[in-house]
Amino acid sequence: MKLNKKVGLIVIIVVIVAALASLFTIYFRQAGERGELNERLSRAEVLLPNLVKQKEGLEDQLAQAQSSLDSSQAKFPQSVESIEYGEYIFEIADRCGLTLASLNFPKPSAKTEGSVTYSVVSLSLPVRGALADIFDFIDVLRTDKRFASTEVKSVNLNVEGGSATISVDIYGYKR
Fold first, then answer.
1. Burial 97-119 (b: 16+ CB within 10 A, else e)
2. Do 62 and 125 fall into the same domain?
């Protein structure tokens, strides 16, 4: 019976040693993982302030770009209403002492600049009157806030006849 007790004791010791070996293996593996995670956490903590600054900088850039887009869009009417612009043009011509022979509003065409598409109405404005009045008319078209999105393309002046044909493009922002 003494042998049985010795074998039992050896088996118990072997089981305890195996359990301890397993526990130590698991502990050291977890300690290695914990060390690796702590190292990754330290690197992330070092990067975090720079990333926060970058994020704030990008948010500022986005806000500036949005503000710039909003202010640019405000300069351009969403659509070019021929009745309104026709009234404005006749009003300005009358104020400048000119006779506007005719006014035809063609259908707007599309013009793309980068990722922005504009509607463009090209007009030909045949006017009659004194040269100084014609120049005043052109100046008003260039400076009047209602025509902020208008570009004077060309002026064909007939000095002897006191007339001119003014070509303009009126831009509208398309969404």
1. ebebeeeebeebeeeeeeeeebb
2. no
